Amino acid sequence: MSLALVVLLALVAAGILAVALRTPDPAQTEVVAVAPTTPDAQPVTAGSTLAARPCPTTARPFEPTRVDVPGVDRGAGVVFPARARVDVPGTPSTDSTGKQQFAYDRVQDVQPGDRRGNVLLNAHTFPDGSALGNRLLDGLREGGRLVLSDGDRRLCYRVTERLEVSADANFYRYYDQDGPARVAIVVCSGERLGPGIWTRRTVWFARPSA
């Protein structure tokens, strides 16, 4: 199967998310985190001080280590797993820490602050509803805010689009490297048919916004 025909399939170990251009064997999937983990993210309300803070929309490019989603999660950690294959972005671990984290795809070579392309993030969805992806599905809508930071720099984004696609569909837009600067997040959604098998993917696109 050629790379040109395969773009967005997600796989999950034990019924959770993984983002993939094709569907690998879950038994052969290995996630290698190369950044330190952070404490579990904590839910916040829409009226939190974070939601009210001014935030820049331009910065020197940086790798995000934290993602704040006012009204959904505060301080979700970011890990940088190696790709499971050349065309398969890695995911967080599936332990109690990893299920509360985002994975950032370094191979995409787009960072917050770059002028073009999508910053690729993904998160796990758990069948018991306990993971970060579940909270994103419940609470992140069009117009919602994201704040990406690395401790020194931070950028704000506003969600401009939320959509669902079939788990079997090719979805080239997620991997755009030449379009306007955006954050693109994907999680498993729809019906869970079995371990690692979900019927849908939910994708959010967010643009820089003060």
* Broad structural category: mainly beta
Give the tally of β-strands: 10
Q: Looking at the structure, what is the overall shape? A: globular
The largest sheet is:
8 strands, mixed, barrel
Total helical segments? 2
The strand order across the widest sheet is: 3-4-5-6-9-10-8-7
Average pLDDT value?
79
Element string (H = helix, E = strand): EEHEEEEHEEEE
What gyration radius follows from the Cα positions, in whole Å? 16 Å
Q: Roughly how much helix do the residues carry, as a percent range?
A: under 10%
Distance between the termini: 42 Å
Spans of 5+ residues with little confidence (pLDDT < 50)? 1-51
Explain what the structure shows.
- With 210 residues, the chain is mainly beta.
- The protein is 6% helix and 32% strand.
- The protein has 2 helices and 10 strands; from the N terminus they run E-E-H-E-E-E-E-H-E-E-E-E.
- The strands form 2 sheets. The protein has an 8-stranded mixed beta barrel with strand order 3-4-5-6-9-10-8-7.
- A hairpin with a 3-residue loop joins strand 3 and strand 4.
- The longest helix has 8 residues.
- The protein is globular, with a radius of gyration of 16 Å.
- The N and C termini lie far apart (42 Å).
- The N terminus is likely disordered.
